[in-house]
Design brief:
The complex is a heterodimer. In chain A, 83% of the residues lie in helices and 0% in strands. Chain A is mostly helical. Chain A has one domain. Chain A is globular, with a radius of gyration of 18 Å. Chain B is mainly α. In chain B, 80% of the residues lie in helices and 0% in strands. The two termini of chain B are 17 Å apart. Classes of the chains: A mainly alpha, B mainly alpha. The interface between A and B is medium-sized, with 30 and 29 residues.
């Protein structure tokens, strides 16, 4: 178990260090998220639709799209100079490699959320104070679900010639259940409903996360080994 | 290697015959539904589409489930036949799903008053349709047969696991779809003639599934043969 964690943290640390030194992808993903929010603002007739009615949906669509952009990079960096061969040759369990890549992706998706939520507060007047501690919980649980599925799928999509296009096509159907749960729970919390009312959706997210993290641990070997 | 081609040709012929019989059966269902089955009291003739819509849904369910199960089995046994079957089943399932997704709105327009509604089962079907379109896109984007088989198997398993989640999440959303009328604890809620027509149609669609998958499987053998041939020349 100690080895497992050490390998996972080493892989995640490598990805984070690489990103901290270039900052290219995350900057692009964060700007992309801001632009999506901006564009959404023009889809609404401000005299007919209140910003708050759209806000939960807009927030989650933005987070989902920006996450796809961020997830694309997870394995493109491994493709360059065949860096993935280094990971393949490592005498480490495939599960640990998966957790490592997923942890780095989790950091990126959480960063996107950390930027998107304040911007949504600014642009759409999202009443985050009403939502309370439920909102960070929902943000975290859905981020885990996104990266569990996204890490597995992006490892496959990158092996094709048009992976950047293929990843959203493969990934979005998988994001629909957590997106429905997250958007439903968010809109209830923002309307001032108590946390107890969204416990069902939170449980749904937890089960989704557990199932897909387990699948990732089991299937990652089939994805990266030749 | 020529054995493969001979086998593919034989399978193609068998699949073709089964498909032909199934298509004749479909013509039979058409007559049976229009002439020998009572017209539904409140929906009138519009309800006749039931005898295509529901069997197509059945075909889709069978096709996608078998694709997922064959995918799971492939990762354990690494038998290329399982991969070929999963691919065939997914493609035929897409065709059935297309039938279901077109007949549904045609039926929905007069009865619900709208072509499309974000009802759970509609949403589920549409998402599953997209899921398997993605499966097909991934297959066609990969050239190494081993890699293609492994990746497709992973997607097939993931899809199999995802469907209950989609179902639950969209079900909690809302529904206007009819509640089950055939498979329910109290027994079927339709008259005998309607049930008979439906069951005949389900049988015909199952046969159609078998015929089409057999043909597609034969084409898969021929394609693998051609790929191996080309690879042999390159190497």
């Amino acid at each position: 178990m100690g080895d497992f964690l050490r390998v996972a943290l080493a892989v995640a640390g490598k990805d984070l260090r690489l990103e901290l030194r270039t900052r290219a992808t995350m900057l692009a993903a964060v700007v992309f998220a801001a632009l999506v929010l901006l564009v959404f603002n023009f889809s609404r007739d401000p005299t007919a639709v209140a910003a708050i009615d759209l806000a939960p949906g807009v927030l989650w669509v933005t987070v989902a799209f920006a996450s796809v952009v961020a997830l694309n990079r997870a394995f493109t960096i491994e493709r360059e100079h065949s860096a993935i061969d280094g990971l393949r040759l490592a005498p480490a369990s495939r599960g640990a490699l998966f957790i490592g890549k997923a942890l780095a992706n989790l950091a990126f998706v959480l960063l996107i959320e950390a930027v998107t939520v304040p911007l949504a507060v600014l642009f759409f007047g999202l009443p985050v104070a009403t939502a309370g501690w439920g909102l960070p919980l929902i943000l975290f649980l859905s981020a885990v679900g996104f990266v569990a599925v996204g890490t597995l799928l992006s490892a496959m999509a990158v092996r094709t010639r048009f992976g950047e296009l293929l990843l959203p096509v493969l990934l979005l159907p998988f994001l629909v259940p957590p997106l429905i749960a997250a958007a439903q729970a968010t809109s209830r919390l923002l309307a001032g409903r108590p946390l107890s009312e969204v416990v069902g959706w939170l449980r749904f997210l937890v089960v989704y996360d557990l199932v897909f993290v387990t699948l990732g641990l089991l299937l990652f070997g089939a994805v990266i080994d030749e | 290697m020529t054995d493969d081609l001979a086998r593919a040709r034989a399978l193609l012929r068998t699949g073709g015959i089964v498909t032909l019989v199934a298509l004749l059966g479909a013509a039979g269902v058409y007559c049976l539904a229009l002439n020998f089955t009572p017209t539904e009291a409140s929906q009138g003739l519009a309800q006749k589409i039931f005898y295509i819509h529901v069997p197509a849904a059945w075909g889709t369910l069978v096709a996608f489930s078998l694709c997922g199960l064959a995918s799971a089995a492939y990762l354990f046994l690494l038998d290329p036949r399982l991969d070929r079957f999963a691919a065939s089943s997914a493609e035929v399932g897409l065709a059935f799903a297309a039938v279901m997704l077109t007949t549904g709105p045609i039926w929905g327009r007069p009865i619900w008053g709208t072509y499309w509604d974000w009802d759970p089962r509609l949403t589920l079907t549409l998402l599953t349709f997209f899921l398997f379109l993605g499966y097909g896109a991934l297959r066609s984007a990969l050239h190494d047969p081993g890699e293609r088989a492994r990746f497709s198997a992973v997607i097939g398993i993931m899809a199999l696991v995802l469907v209950p989640f989609i179902h639950l999440s969209v079900y909690l959303f809302r529904t206007i779809h009819p509640k089950p009328v055939v498979l329910r604890p109290e027994g079927p809620a339709l008259p005998f003639e309607m049930l008979r027509t439906l069951l005949v149609s389900v049988g015909v669609f199952t046969l159609l599934y078998i015929g089409l998958v057999t043909m597609r499987y034969a084409l898969g053998i021929a394609r693998d043969h051609a790929e191996a041939d080309a690879g042999g020349r390159d190497g």
